[in-house]
Amino acid sequence: MRKLKSETTFQIVINIILIFLTLCSLLPFVLLIMSSVTQESALIADGYQFWPRVFSLDAYRYIIARAGTIFKAYGITMLVTLVGTTISLIITPLLAYPLSRQDFKLHNVMSFLVFFTMLFNGGLVPTYMMWTQIFHIKNTLPALIIPALLLNAFNVMLMKNYFKMNIPYSLIEAAKIDGAGEFFIFYRVVMPLSKPIMATVGLFVGINYWNDWMNGLYYVTDANLFSLQNFLNRMMQNINYLATAEGAEVAQGSMIMPSSSMRMALAVIGVLPIMVLYPFFQKYFVKGMTVGSVKG
Amino acid sequence: MANKKKANWKAQLPLLLMTVPGMLYLFINNYIPICGLFIAFKDIDYSKGIFKSDWNGFENFKYLFRTEDAFIITRNTILYNLTFIILNVVICVAVAVMLSEVSKKFMMKFYQTALLLPHLISIIIIAYIAYAFLNSDTGFINHSIQEAMGRDPVNFYADPKYWPFILVIVQVWKTMGYTSIIYFSAILGIDRSLYEAAVVDGAGKMKQIFYITLPLLRPTIITMVLMNVGRIFYSDFGLFLQVPMNQGALFNVTNTIDTYVYRALLLNNDIGMASAAGLYQSIVGFLLVLGANLLVRKMDPENALF
Fold it and tell me: B54-303, superfamily in CATH?
């Protein structure tokens, strides 16, 4: 009897602590969303509040009314995410698969070369010099796609381990005996069996592209090529960026610019896709994290 | 024999071809910059180009280490990372143990989902959220908490003394879910029959945690800590650049090696200093990774990276 009671107390205590931590995780997002739907004057008078005194969708109306720059940035983010993730999902398994094959003579050497990139890197200066001075990537769309994000050793290792554990070599051999070539086997035997790992890696890469602001920070100065994150970053650097850069345009419109709440509304628009899709992809994400014992 | 070898290589060719795009990418993206580390020993002059610029030996390094910055950025990078490592172990192991003990499975899932969310959000958005809490006129803390308690508003973005706390809180907030789930999955791997035996022997929850869960989690903890120690020379660039909003008044407590290199290269156009600091980070960082791995291999060979 006593035991049961202490068990219940234990459950209550840990649930209270976890609920508290959950609130700590979520409430900042509530503040973000709430401040985006606060009327500008109320926001200035009361500050950022979890429950605004005066609700208003002006910030969103304003964004939609003068959508140009913002939707463009949104479009660039989507394009970059789509193209980057697609290419990554082609070249990552193409590299990981031969490395998983014990009969591939170079699998050890190449695995090491891949793995070594996780231990040692040239750092920002030579990387920046290379992309800008040799490949002249500055202010081009590929600058948002190619540097750093296209393929990373962690994902290659993740896939390699998956292939090793989930694709029996006998299957490959059987296909070979039937006369199938290596590319055919890769495409028709290995890939269909690898949907879970493709989903996981695609998710990792896609989120990285969606959230990336560093490539834009380093290689893009032309506002026409800003991704959403770079746009947000620029607004952050200069809080009155919109007001100054497009002052004339604003003066023509009759609306008063809701600058503080609009900033928050833009941030909300930036996280919205992730927050909406998150419950659905959560499972794959966690799975990918937890199998990630990465070894050479 | 020779023929067979030839045929063998021919059979390997398709596999080799598959690796070409990926290896080419790594060669360009990762290996060329490693070779480019020599920039640190040059006096770069854009008009002459990278290769034709004059060599200047260790001048860049002498210059760097003569400044106060070299000490400040090293200190900040290491101290913040040490704090993160300690707090992350204590908090995340505790959270993981609690998650594993929650009896209602859907609640456990719910906590897990909520805690992981900050990990998926870009640091730019996090900086916006931090701004909503901290800014001096309309920030939630100044406007609601400070005012309610009758205290004067604090100008967070101009006062360095708060930032060690702010940055630590933001970092823990952002990574707690992720690290906890890694520990949590290690706990799930523990043999359930151990707990059943403990229950038969009359051990309560606390006893089970301290005599089964934690001891069996030890290898994972050690590995995670040592891996993070190996990365102690690298800082979370976004956290230190974006959350303090690049405010000069805060540099003393927010500047790390990564932010220093970025500012020297792209804002101050001081390639010499940037490349010297970068090489310093690459080399010391690499030695630390090797050292940490050596330790893991001694204590727990299964979990060593190589």
Answer: MetI-like (1.10.3720.10)
